[in-house]
Amino acid sequence: MKLLTFIYLLCLSSLCYGQSNHINPWETGKPAALPPVAGLSSGVWLKGDLHLHSRHSKESSNNAVAKIISFAKSVGMGFICITDHDNHVQGDVAQHTWLDPEFKSDSLLLLYGAEWTTTRGHGNVFSAQPYDHQRLFDVRDQRDVVIGAVKKNLNIHLSANHPSGKDHFGYSYDLIESMEVWNSSTWAKNESALMIWDDMLSSGRKLTARGGSDAHHGLPDRPELATANSKLVKTNYVGTPTTWVYATEKTPQGVINALTNGRVSISANPYAPRVEFYADINSDGKMDMMMGDNTMATGNAVNFSINLSGNIPSGNTYTIKVIKNGGEFGTYKVDGNKPAIGFVDAPAISGRTYYRVEVTGTPAPYPQVPGSTALSDNMIAISNPIYFNFDPSF
């Protein structure tokens, strides 16, 4: 009996299962190699709105395509994507939004897209050219592996909408390239989205953060056309928030590429400061990387630089918070006279590390949408991360 008991206990031990020498094959390690970081001198900053609804979304009002385009141009936008609900037209956005004779502009870059509106949540599609959206709509209730195959074949950029809201994205985050961490001018409903984003980043998913006003309603042309929602134009409309991309070319594809690569910053409105985030990885005094870029950590100290760009009154003050791997790394105060700071840190030579930036402070007035600043909770801008040791094949 004693011998049987000993054998039983031995089999329960780690020796029986070989655990003493176990090596986790999925353990996070250093990537074998990473693509070279793109340059910093051949791009242009473009601002836009990536979540808008026109009259082709049935619950919107007084928001013709031409009205959206005209307003966007008036506040200096470089691009927009009108993302009407596809379920309102049974997936046929090509014959509605895109075929609308007002869907054209000689200066504003128009992306092709739609809001993928499903029982499992909402996502936005972005494309530089027309694509067969009907195919994506048709598989909306299928398993993720089926959806992923269709998405890949369509060669589209898929983005999770309002991930912490009522119609949160209920699909695998492995299907997407970006997520809407800032939806509409009301900042309070977005704080949980940052937590979800940090979870995804910390687990190795290199997902771009973007914004989108999700504006549905325009100003009526005549008083009798006003609806109960017409007042929302004064609190949330095109550019609340504004998404900035650092594009290598001023084309729709240039915007999509920058969005996919994470060279993206978000501001509260078109007139709010833009946060820019850079890193000097070899201490030669020249910036080598910007937000969205990914390189191998060497174990050496890296010099980081954060600056605010745009029309910044000298009397305004801002708080810059640096997030490292989901936790607060440091908080810094700047003012309009010198809206820039630097810090130094050494990313771990093994494992993944990322840094991102949040800026709060004096809201920037948006005269065309005057009520938006009161809803911002003083959130000014958010950067995308600078990455170290993120495996592109993950």
Question: What brief labels describe this structure?
Answer:
single chain; 394 residues; alpha+beta; four-stranded antiparallel β-sheet; 19 strands
Description:
The protein has 394 residues and is α+β, with helices and mostly antiparallel strands. It has one domain. The protein has a 15-stranded mixed beta sheet that branches. The protein has a four-stranded antiparallel beta sheet with strand order 11-10-13-16, with no helix packed on it. It is globular and about 70 Å long. The mean pLDDT is 94.
Give the topology:
Blueprint: H1 2-12, H2 14-17, E1 44-52, H3 65-74, E2 79-82, E3 109-118, E4 121-127, H4 133-138, H5 144-154, E5 157-160, E6 178-183, H6 191-202, E7 208-212, E8 242-247, H7 252-261, E9 264-267, E10 274-280, E11 289-290, E12 294-295, E13 302-309, E14 317-324, E15 327-335, E16 340-345, E17 353-361, E18 379-383, E19 386-388
Parallel strand pairs: 1-2, 2-3, 5-6, 6-7, 12-19
Antiparallel strand pairs: 1-8, 3-4, 4-5, 8-9, 9-18, 10-11, 10-13, 13-16, 14-15, 14-17, 17-18, 17-19
- Percent strand: 25-35%
Q: On the 0-100 scale, what is the average pLDDT?
A: 94
The count of β-strands is: 19
Low-confidence stretches: none
Query: Count of DSSP helices?
Result: 7
Helix content: 10-25%
Query: What's the overall geometry?
Result: globular
Quick summary:
With 394 residues, the chain is α+β, with helices and mostly antiparallel strands.
